[in-house]
Amino acid sequence: MTPAREGTAREMFDLDGRVAIVTGASSGLGASAARTLASLGARVAVVARRQDRLAALAREIDGIAVACDLSDPERVGSVVPAVVEGLGPPEILVNAAGSMFTEERAESEPLDAVRRTLDLNLVAPFLLAQAVFPHMRAVGRGAIVNVSSISGRVGIPGIPQASYAASKAGLSGLTAELAVQWARHSIRVNTVAPGFFRSEITGPLYESERAAEYLRRNTPLPKEGSADDIVGAIVWLAGDAGSYVTGQTIVVDGGWTAR
Fold first, then answer.
1. How does 6-38 read in b/e, with b if 16+ C-beta sit within 10 Å?
2. Buried-state track 144-156, b at ≥16 Cβ within 10 A, e below 16
3. Which CATH architecture has domain 12-252?
4. Percent of the chain, pLDDT > 90?
5. Catalytic: 206?
6. What is the pLDDT of residues 128-178, one digit of tens each?
7. Can you give the residue ranges of every domain in the chain?
8. Whether the predicted pLDDT of 3 surpasses 60
9. Residue 61: closest CA among 128, 129, 11, 15
10. Which of 25, 54, 101, 176 could disulfide-link to 65, CB 3.0 to 4.6 Å?
């Protein structure tokens, strides 16, 4: 690669000075995304419930920590004002927070668990997108990256997760609609839909040899997925390298849904 082309490639992924918000950053994919964005020059606000983990990560990446239980819609509104006060107007939002609140089959899912799942996985990303919108519009650009799941695209035998799947499919619909509405402000909205990788949610699967073998057998690529395998897509969509991509759901699953 010539020096000129190398410089261009670096510029495509340079996030120097841009303010980013990453939710679900106390562990797993959110933490990996926050570290990677910071390594590319972004000033990162990390958001999650666990203040101790957040504080340690914020010190590590020279960012700020904003503790918030995003499953409570009444509290979500405190996040963006805290970021603006601490770092400035956000240009990047990564909605990586997500969880399941029941393992019941669809016919037995309790209403409270359904609502909590939708509040965290779908309502919170929408509210945060609404909150960053005026700041991105004022700056003249912005990138919102929602983290979904292949569960929002295909049913997975043996893993009941109806409300979780519905919330993740909803993110793709929300992504497409926001992308079209906000394109005139140069605000891009995309979704990354990971397949299986080690996380707090999937930990029990990998601890069971039978389940781990099921994952290996059904993933075409011969490697176990990790959070770092997903971060590349997030970085691409967050910066100028993905400047002409909007309204898309990008699947990163080792080939699971391509079978």
1. eeeeeeebbbeebbbbbbbbbebbbbbbbbbbb
2. bbbbbbbbbbbeb
3. 3-Layer(aba) Sandwich (3.40)
4. 74
5. no
6. 999 999 999 999 999 999 999 998 999 887 787 899 999 999 999 999 999
7. 12-252
8. no
9. 15
10. 54
